[in-house]
Amino acid sequence: MSMPAIRIRGVTKSYGALKALGGVDLEIAQGEFFGLLGPNGAGKTTLISSLAGIVRPDGGTLEVMGHDVVGDYRNARRNLGVVPQELVFDPFFSVRELLRIQSGYFGIRSNDDWVDEILASLDLTGKANANMRALSGGMKRRVLVAQALVHRPPVIVLDEPTAGVDVELRQGLWHFIRKLNRDGHTIVLTTHYLEEAETLCGRIAMLKGGRIVALDTTGNLLRRFATHSLRVRLQRPDAGLALGGAVVEEGGWIEFAFDSYGDVESLLARLREAHAGLIEMQLGEPDLERVFVEVMNRA
Amino acid sequence: MRDPQAHPAPRIEPMPVDSPLTGFRTLLYKEVLRFWKVSFQTVAAPVLNAVLYLLIFSHVLDRHVTVYGDVGYTTFLVPGLVMMSVLQNAFANSSSSLIQSKITGNIIFVLLPPLSYREFYAAYVIASILRGLFVGVGVLLVSLPFVDLPIANPLWVLAFALMGGAILGSFGVIAGIWAEKFDQLAAFQNFLIMPLTMLSGVFYSIHSLPQIWQNVSHFNPFFFMIDGFRYGFFGQSDTSPWLSLGVVGACFVVLAALTLAMLGRGYKLRS
User: Fold this and answer.
1) pLDDT score of A289 more than 80
2) Mean pLDDT throughout A193-216?
3) Interchain pair A54, B112: CB under 8 A
4) Is A67 on the interface with B (CB under 8 A)?
5) A147 contact B CB<8A
6) How far is Cα of residue B139 from the mean position of the Cα atoms in its chain?
7) Does B12 touch chain A (CB under 8 A)?
8) CATH at A199
9) pLDDT tens-digit series, residues B115-141
10) What are the residues facing A36 on neighbouring strands?
11) B6 close contact with A: CB closer than 8 A
């Protein structure tokens, strides 16, 4: 088995009485598109910051492409590109100056071809000589992505990269990130947009209270945790409730959960027998949002 | 979306490093470029400030005061103003750069790359020295039409300018890392750096002070920086240049060690 892109073993971190990470173990294979999900305060950013060397864990080890992030930090950081969550920029420089400077920090002086490729892929070529202050929020977000890629890192971590970003930019960004993944880059994504994670990520870890509470392929998580749903509007809602349905807040809908489509037939038969009076119905597919809610409730 | 089990990923290698020093050089270049891009504020304004001091003090005192026997007051004043400018601007450079980066959050771009804390320190301090020297040379050049300034020992001039800049550059790194808001940094500047500079003998020889204040001045390290620097011009000073060199050198070693220890521990930078 080849060396994992990321190996995290027993990582703990506390801030006073607050335990931000309570012993995290995780391996991410090279070439994966991996999702790191969790509610606010779950420890996602602390884990990413530990990987990047911004946070120093109290215990445990972290490796990027086999390089320990403390003992061999130079090689670990050369192999890692991080897109930070906050929209930060240096107001003194133009986009191209920033990318050249960022390349230099990684020991690289002659990567203009690669920088041009990044600029073109992120639709920033026309803004290459613009000062950062003159860019819109979406443009600044793209520059953050470009800065994380200047040294062509094998592992790319995106911490909430689409927060507050419009649909067009979001789609363009994911198109580019998918291409990087196809080219062989390992992608680690944290996001609150669960639809994005479901579409993009092959494997997902869910964190709560600084611990991993679920870790599997996206497909397995959907199969294991999520149930199908049938929503109905009835002439006699009490009959539906008596059969185990739950009231959905909007529009007087009642929802039934079931494991397979085979259960729908018997459910409808029981509603008919109870003279519930079916007015309207909708079938719901399992989705990551349901998985997320269920995992968080169980944990 | 790639399934890494079914389709093994092509191996991606990070770009090769051109030189182990490229990271340090780039941070130094960026820090110099940062003040150079706003050189009206960071170089021209302090030069003008110093020249105003020169014009006002020389107008008031030149006919009334001589120092070291026959040195006119304006001539005496120029090296003090040059060194004061070097010190204040070296401090301003590293401290303002760091606090701005911390408050805006862009310090992360320096923390993510594979730069060591020693490279970080060296780049910020050397950039501070360079800004101090730019301003100091500016003050000197603008002052030359007003005075006939000798340079008895250029190496002493250079040594004290470099060490003074390095000390204040280190001080600026400490202040920039410690301060969490501009107000705290301003307090550092206004209540520590400014009084110590003003009371260091920039505008007077300490021999003109009562004995007690002469003794107190010897507890101010800025006095030794100014006095040693002035010795390089006149070949005369209030105290032995070797003592000044020793005090200034010791200050630099202590401050450098303290700053490196802070950076090595990641104090307020890496939690």
Assistant:
1) no
2) 88
3) yes
4) no
5) yes
6) 15
7) yes
8) 3.40.50.300
9) 999 999 999 999 999 999 999 999 999
10) A190, A205
11) no
DSSP string, A157-206: EEESTTTT--HHHHHHHHHHHHHHHHTT-EEEEE-S-HHHHHHH-SEEEE
pLDDT tens by residue, B195-238: 888 888 777 777 777 788 878 888 889 999 999 999 999 998 88
Give how far Cα B217 sits from Cα of A169, B78, B99, B194, B229, Å. 63, 20, 31, 15, 16
Domain range for residue A133?
A: 88-151
pLDDT tens profile A31-58? 999 999 988 888 999 999 999 999 999 9
Burial code of B43-71, b = ≥16 C-beta within 10 A, e = fewer? beebbebbbebbeebbeebbeebebeeeb
Answer yes or no: is A25 within a domain.
Answer: yes
- Tell me which H or E stretch contains A24: strand A18-28
CA nearest B20 in A: which residue? Answer: A107
Count of residues for chain B? 271
On whether the CB atoms of residues A205 and A215 are closer than 8 A, the answer is: yes
Pairing between β-strand A228-234 and β-strand A246-247 as defined by DSSP bridges:
unpaired
Q: Which amino acid is at A127?
A: K
Query: Tokens at residue A61, please?
Result: 């080890």
Q: Do A3 and A60 fall into the same domain?
A: yes
Among candidates A7, A11, A16, A6, which has minimal Cα distance to A58? A11
Question: Is A101 in contact with B32 (CB distance < 8 Å)?
Answer: no
CB A288 within 8 A of CB A219: no
Here the tokens at position B269 are: 């930078």
Of B27, B106, B114, the CB nearest to A73: B114
A294 falls within a domain: no
Identify from A15, A70, A105 which residue to disrupt to test chain B contact, counting B C-beta atoms within 10 A and taking the largest count: A105
For residue A247, the SS3 value is strand
Q: What is the C-alpha radius of gyration for chain A, rounded to an integer number of angstroms?
A: 23
Question: CA–CA separation, B37 vs A129, rounded Å?
Answer: 15
Number of domains present in the structure of chain A: 3
A91-101 pLDDT, tens digit per residue, is: 888 999 999 99
User: Which residues in chain A are closer than 8 Å to B18, comparing Cβ atoms?
Assistant: 107-110
Residue A207 located in a structural domain: yes
Query: What's the rounded Cα separation, in Å, for the pair B73 and A188?
Result: 67
Q: Is there a single domain that holds both residue A105 and residue A191?
A: no
pLDDT tens digits along B155-209: 999 999 999 999 999 999 999 999 999 999 999 888 988 888 888 877 777 777 7
Domain boundary among A225, A251, A274: A225
Q: Which residues of B touch A79 (CB under 8 A)?
A: 14
Which chain A residues touch B116 with a CB distance below 8 Å?
A: 74
Q: Does B41 contact chain A (CB < 8 Å)? A: no
Q: Is residue A208 one of the residues assigned to a domain?
A: yes
Same domain, A202 and A71: yes
**From edge to edge, which strands make up the β-sheet containing A6-15?**
A18-28, A6-15, A59-64, A67-68
Q: Which of B242, B229, B85, B243 is nearest to B157 (CA)?
A: B229
